[in-house]
Specification:
The chain is an alpha+beta fold. It is 38% helix and 12% strand. It folds into two domains: 109 residues, Beta-grasp domain (Ubiquitin-like (UB roll)); 133 residues, Alpha-helical ferredoxin (Fumarate Reductase Iron-sulfur Protein, Chain B, domain 2), CATH 1.10.1060.10.
């Protein structure tokens, strides 16, 4: 099939960007979206022009590196799918596809579709870890955890930190990401010792970095490639309130 692509091109973070038009011809419906861009980039390179810059790594929906807004939707039209897992059979012949980077104050555009998502790393550094000695596998197996609790923790841990929740949110909020990281530890006994400090520290850093607040629009949940539930945000709010009360009492 043949497609018309309108791609955001921006040479640097402090330069103005623009949409440029490219034509993708004879594209197989079995290609992934990134493979389609590879084909377009090959043509652009042969013409002596600079190829489209975009983030990617594993191309298996695991690493969270890929990400772009496709026709106004983070990661494209297919639910529960990363951009590298999106296949061209989701589009039709002669479609016009608009491709833009994540749009958020905290995600500065580096070049074209590449944005700086190190703000998410800073949130993790503020408290997304445990310092207790968990021992070996046999020690972990000796700690009894209800299956329902373990599944909730694993569901939260599925977050790959791609930033789609931020890009989809009208407030550019990182609360789904932050709440997933807080939840996966708050639900497990290994994460309890630092729970109060973690909830306050990660929330404060999130606010400091310029992310917006949650207003329950639920775009984040709808566009998350791992379908992280916004119930994690409710849990995060409870953890924050408990932690604030403890800090006040102490």
């Amino acid at each position: 099939m043949n497609l018309t692509l309108k791609v955001w091109r921006q040479q640097g973070p402090d330069l103005k960007g623009r949409l440029e038009t490219y034509y993708a011809k004879n594209i197989s419906t079995d290609m992934s979206f990134l493979e389609m861009i590879d084909v377009v980039n090959e043509k652009i390179t042969l013409e002596g022009k600079e190829p489209i810059a975009f983030d990617n790594d594993c191309r298996e929906g695991i690493c969270g590196m890929c990400g772009a807004v496709i026709n106004g939707r983070a990661h494209g039209p297919e639910k529960g799918t990363t951009l590298c897992q999106l296949h061209m059979r989701q589009f039709s012949d002669n479609d016009v596809i608009v491709i833009e980077p994540w749009r958020a104050k905290a995600f500065k555009v580096i070049k074209d579709l590449v944005v700086d998502r190190s703000a998410l790393d800073k949130i993790i550094q503020a408290g997304g870890y445990i310092s207790v000695n968990t021992g070996g596998a046999q020690d972990a197996n000796s700690i009894l955890i209800p299956q329902e609790t373990a599944e909730l923790a694993m569901d939260a841990a599925a977050c790959i930190g791609c930033g789609a929740c931020v890009a989809a949110c009208p407030n550019a909020s990182a609360m789904l990401f932050t709440s997933a990281k807080i939840s996966q530890l708050a639900l497990l006994p290994q994460g309890k010792p630092e729970a109060a400090r973690r909830a306050i520290a990660m929330t404060r850093v999130m606010d400091k970095l310029g992310f917006g607040n949650c207003t329950n629009e639920r775009e984040c949940e709808a566009e998350c490639p791992k379908e992280i539930s916004i119930t994690n945000i409710a849990r995060m709010n409870r953890e924050f309130l408990k932690a604030s009360f403890i800090s006040t009492v102490q």
